[in-house]
Amino acid sequence: MDLKEIQQLIKFVSNSGVDEVDIERKDFKLSIKKVAHREVVSVQQQIPQQIMAPVQSQQPVAQPAAGPAPAQPAAEAQSSNLVEVKSPMIGTFYRSPSPDKPAFINVGDEIKEGDVICIVEAMKLFNEIESEISGKVVKVLVDDASPVEYDQPLFLVEPS
Fold it and tell me: 38 pLDDT band (50/70/90 cuts)?
């Protein structure tokens, strides 16, 4: 079982009513348990080595169940000359380097290629995301400390 299959299984457990899943194969044992809004994944190999990886739980966010919300930024970007800056990875989006610091960028700010625009935390690693374009920030599409998917639009930028 590879990492993608484990991630799909975790997503299934978080989206379904299932609270616990155990899978045992020759070379490993996988146990996923949903515990009070927190998921814990435990992978044990036959060797005495044990891997524990906490998985971020997704807080319920008030969004329409249909698909218009994600399509709206794309439609907005296509209707004008705005460019979407997308997340290069799955993780948690942060607008500032720490809670007591100001945001890297705000609506109306001019950014240059290579400027740090946000942080995406993945597996306890804080990855600085740099702008690939220069321009003016028109809209921030993601709330601070929200989970983001790969290729999810984060900002709309008017290129300069």
Answer: very low
pTM given for the model: 0.52
Share of the chain above pLDDT 70, in %: 71
Characterize the bridge pairing of strands 116-122 and 135-140: unpaired
Question: Mapping DSSP to helix (H, G, I), strand (E, B) and coil, where does residue 18 land?
Answer: coil
Helices (H), the chain: 3-15, 68-79
For 68-76, which contacts have Cβ atoms below 8 Å and span 24 or more sequence positions? 70/152, 70/153, 73/139, 73/141, 73/153, 73/156, 74/153, 76/139, 76/156
Domain ranges of the chain: 3-55, 68-159
Across the range 92-119, mean pLDDT stands at 95
> For domain 68-159, which CATH number applies: 2.60.40.10, 2.60.120.560, 2.40.50.100, 2.70.150.10?
2.40.50.100
